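Predicting structure from sequence has reshaped protein science. With that in mind, we have picked out one protein's residues alongside their backbone shape tokens:
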Amino acid sequence: MGEQRQRFNEEFKKQTIKLLQEQAKTVEEIAQELDIPARTLHSWKAKYRDFKNEPIASLDRIKELEQLVKEQQRELHAKDRKIADVEEELTIVKKAVHIFSKPKN
């Protein structure tokens, strides 16, 4: 007959994925240590992954943060251009008010 399937509670799954994210070990290494199929850990990782627990040095996290920084730089640059345009418009309006507020002789 077949083997009895192991059942794990939600807390165990979450703690296992947290351990996986905090360790420098591969999924396969942790699966072997815990005697759990690597495919199972991969599916748990997809379901319970918490990006805040991942070390900053993971390649995916670095790429994600670089993309976020680039996006924020673009937004900041666009805002700087808009501020410069508004300042230029304000200067023009000030000059126009000055010109049109002079009394006519």
